[in-house]
């Protein structure tokens, strides 16, 4: 299994890049959002990867962060969602947007991805709703691991210029993770806590942990 590659971008196409790793070229398919964040031709990049092997095809898919890769794995576990549809969803929403949409049950946001109809979008939300809190709770760790690993990988390339690491997870991924943990410790269920944190983070993307907790508690407070 190829879990991560680091090398020089040889060329870019609408849905993939060719990365030269010490003389071996790898075609790596990525979401539109990931492709837009990659450096230009001739520059070095590092991507987490997922290798799909079929009887007549082998394809390598690339991701900027471990969180994005984890959502790809979960999305493709849903019946009717293949790699292409998964990349379309991640390209439209990003990993944080997928977390929020699923935690909030917002299948219309998922439906906004190219080629994803309402029935499939509803299935994604229903099938993955219980798994959203787990990915959100990993957010802080993944953000740190993603940034550190990409920086280290880029610097390990022999006889290549030092690359600027690809973007890691959103700045408040750690805050969302800590807020989710705090709400869980207060006795709120994973699904309710994840939904409240996702909504709070959507309203205030740059909020710190205490602000997210206060906002989420207001959302969870009994109405009336």
UniProtKB/TrEMBL annotation:
Query: In the UniProt record, which is one GO cellular component term?
Result: cytoplasm
Q: Where is the DNA helicase Holliday junction RuvA type domain?
A: 1-62
Q: What are the start and end residues of every segment in region (Domain III)?
A: 171-224
Q: What is its main location?
A: cytoplasm
Q: Name one Pfam family in it.
A: RuvA_C
UniProt keyword annotations, A-Z: Cytoplasm, DNA damage, DNA recombination, DNA repair, DNA-binding
Q: Where is this region: Domain I?
A: 1-64
> Could you confirm whether the keyword Iron appears in this record?
no
Supply one GO molecular-function term. Answer: ATP binding
Q: Which superkingdom, per the lineage?
A: Bacteria
| Domain Holliday junction DNA helicase RuvA C-terminal residue range list | 175-221
- Gene3D superfamilies cross-referenced by the UniProt entry: 5' to 3' exonuclease, C-terminal subdomain, DNA helicase RuvA subunit, C-terminal domain, Nucleic acid-binding proteins
Q: What is known of its domains?
A: Has three domains with a flexible linker between the domains II and III and assumes an 'L' shape. Domain III is highly mobile and contacts RuvB.
Q: How does it assemble?
A: Homotetramer. Forms an RuvA(8)-RuvB(12)-Holliday junction (HJ) complex. HJ DNA is sandwiched between 2 RuvA tetramers; dsDNA enters through RuvA and exits via RuvB. An RuvB hexamer assembles on each DNA strand where it exits the tetramer. Each RuvB hexamer is contacted by two RuvA subunits (via domain III) on 2 adjacent RuvB subunits; this complex drives branch migration. In the full resolvosome a probable DNA-RuvA(4)-RuvB(12)-RuvC(2) complex forms which resolves the HJ.
Task: Tell me which family the UniProt entry assigns to this protein.
Answer: Belongs to the RuvA family.
Q: Which NCBIfam families match?
A: ruvA (TIGR00084)
What is the name attached to this protein's record?
A: Holliday junction branch migration complex subunit RuvA
Give the organism's phylogenetic lineage.
Bacteria, Pseudomonadati, Pseudomonadota, Alphaproteobacteria, Rhodobacterales
